[in-house]
């Protein structure tokens, strides 16, 4: 692995990306903010004086950025968020501070990388997560009539919205007993 001239710490979110760029030769640290367009961010990193190493935290935005950076010949480290050291006094978190912390840890070699899955593996993970979410929703819908029975036993007045109850029941494929129940 060649020694990088430019280090980039990226704080990636769904709508924007904050980049902290450190020129190793001069020690100059600059900050940039951009939209969360993968091609745009990868183009920005590839346009910096090379060789370039970039780092960002693994998260819900996926690994598309890492694959695009590697495709553009930018070394990329996807860091495990749980392994990033945080000071006990650091209570204020900002995008700029997170990006700066990433670039400093990248310079020190203190980031723990995670394996970047391929497109197919990432799609399979997303499918499994979606299936689990549907299963949890189904169980919640199945248990909802039981919660109503418990409320009836204690003599409470139960009013439920027909539209919400009907949509939940339709998803769970249950027959609605009585959407407006009043005791």
Class based on secondary structure composition and strand pairing: alpha/beta
Shape: globular
Tell me about the biggest sheet?
A: 5 strands, mixed
Order of helices and strands: EEEHEHEHHH
User: Strand arrangement, largest sheet?
Assistant: 3-2-1-4-5
- Counting DSSP H or I runs of 4 or more residues, the number of helices is 5
What's this, in brief?
The chain is built from five helices and five strands; from the N terminus they run βββαβαβααα. The chain is an alpha/beta fold and 183 residues long.
Tell me what the structure shows.
By secondary structure, the protein is of the alpha/beta class. The protein folds into two domains: 6-116, Nucleotidyltransferase, domain 5 (2-Layer Sandwich), CATH 3.30.420; 120-172. 42% of the residues lie in helices and 18% in strands. It has five helices and five strands. The protein has helices at residues 38-46, 64-71, 95-108, 119-153, 162-172, and strands at 6-12, 16-23, 29-35, 52-57, 75-79. The chain has a five-stranded mixed beta sheet with strand order 3-2-1-4-5. The radius of gyration is 24 Å and the shape is globular. The termini are far apart.
């Amino acid at each position: 692995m060649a020694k990088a001239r430019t280090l980039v710490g990226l704080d990636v979110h769904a709508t924007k990306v904050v980049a902290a760029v450190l020129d190793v030769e001069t020690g100059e640290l600059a900050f940039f903010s951009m939209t969360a367009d993968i091609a745009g961010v990868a183009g920005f990193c590839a346009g910096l004086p090379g060789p370039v190493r970039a780092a960002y935290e693994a998260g819900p935005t996926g690994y598309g950025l890492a694959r695009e950076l590697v495709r553009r010949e930018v070394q990329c480290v996807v860091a495990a968020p749980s392994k990033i050291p945080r000071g006990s006094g650091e209570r204020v978190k900002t995008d700029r501070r997170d990006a700066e912390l990433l670039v400093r840890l990248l310079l020190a070699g203190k980031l723990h990388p995670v394996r970047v899955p391929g497109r197919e593996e990432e799609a399979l993970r997303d499918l499994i997560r979606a299936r689990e979410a549907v299963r949890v929703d189904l169980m919640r819908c199945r248990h909802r009539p039981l919660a109503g029975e418990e409320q009836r036993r204690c003599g409470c007045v139960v009013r439920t919205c027909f539209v919400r109850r009907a949509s939940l029941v339709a998803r769970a494929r249950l027959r609605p007993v009585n959407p407006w129940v009043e005791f």
